[in-house]
Design a protein that fits this description.
Radius of gyration: 25 Å
Oligomer: single chain
Mean pLDDT: 88
Order of helices and strands: HHHHHHH
Structural class: mainly alpha
């Protein structure tokens, strides 16, 4: 009986139409996301500004942490400070409750990013594509290890752009991160409304 029925033929025109509809639907969805955001907040949405006490503790903590790290860097003649630590300070003092600001993320994220980028640098050298690979791989490894820390993406770039030696892993990546975390623990907990860290590991 099966042999008596004609075989079904796929209509190429129908397939093209189906693909067109699929592409059109995706584009429409993409545009809806953008226009929906525009309708809810055309240029800017209202911003909840933090209390002046929170701003004061963020300012004081970041000032003391960066100043202490820079001072120790000069006194020990070790490069304990690097540009991404400015962004780390934003997190650990500006939004200390954030999961991205916890010690595991600060220390672990900077170490993972430094290690990944040092391996890529010493295997493949520094070039535009290896810079991209270093940052992308650092992000992936931080996600895999649960140590995601946004400033660590800049750590990977610092390694690639300065062609850092293996010593970079210890100084400033590890030692500088530890100093900043210790400063955050000391100064954030001086404020009555702050508790830092939320967790260590």
């Amino acid at each position: 009986m099966k042999g008596n029925f004609p075989k079904k033929r796929t209509n190429p025109a129908y397939l093209r139409l189906f693909n067109y509809k699929n592409i059109h639907l995706r584009l429409k969805n993409y545009w809806f996301k953008i226009s929906g955001t525009w309708r809810s907040c055309p240029l800017t949405c209202p911003i909840d500004k933090p209390h002046h006490k929170h701003i004061f503790w963020s300012w004081l903590g970041s000032f003391l942490a960066i100043a202490a790290t820079a001072y120790l860097s000069v006194k020990t003649n070790s490069p304990l400070l690097m540009a991404p630590f400015g962004a780390t300070s934003v997190l650990i003092f500006g939004v200390p409750d954030s999961p991205l600001a916890q010690p595991r993320n600060v220390i672990g994220g900077n170490l993972v990013a430094a290690l990944v980028s040092l391996i890529i640098l010493h295997l493949f050298g520094s070039s535009p594509w290896t810079m991209g690979m270093a940052v992308a791989t650092a992000i992936g490894m931080m996600q895999l290890t649960g140590t995601l820390h946004p400033p660590s993406g800049a750590v990977a770039l610092v390694v690639m752009m300065t062609k850092a030696p293996w010593q970079f892993l210890l100084t400033p990546a590890l030692q500088g991160s530890i100093i900043l975390v210790l400063c955050a623990v000391v100064f954030n907990n001086l404020a009555q409304e702050r508790t830092y860290p939320k967790h260590w590991l």
